[in-house]
Model the fold of this input.
Amino acid sequence: MTASPVTFRPFTPTDAPACLVLFNSNCPPYFHPSERADFEQFLQDLEDRGDYWVMELSGGLVGCGGVWFGGGGQAGLGWGMVRRDLHGQGLGTRLTAFRLQRLRAWPEVRQIRLDTSQHTEAFYASHGFVVMQRTTDDFASGLDKVKMELELDLR
Done:
């Protein structure tokens, strides 16, 4: 795990090019090239899509990810990624922990959802998420959609 201090701050439109570089670094296998346009549109329309942050290490943007809030106690994680050459250093865990902490701060949130692929399913399972549904080749050929949920303890 990296020992350098990691900081989080809200995404700004000037971060979009760096976030697209992060996306490209994970494409493939974690994302399919056809998803880039969806991510780019997401970054342009963030006002209606929840909260989104960037993660910086030594002054450089190395990760990004967001949360969304739904009704009925549901919330979720969206478009989380870490620069691929930095995988395996604990940065994904720090990004996920930061986002889960943000969601747990909302007393009405009881269930956290996410859509991921077979390539990151085990990572999210290690954080307590369970598979609810799997659709083969849903994101693209060879890239399954895995719907996962984390139930929060009643407070």
About this structure: Strands lie at 6-10, 51-57, 60-69, 74-82, 111-116, 130-140, 143-151. The radius of gyration is 15 Å. The CA atoms of residues 13 and 44 lie 7 Å apart.
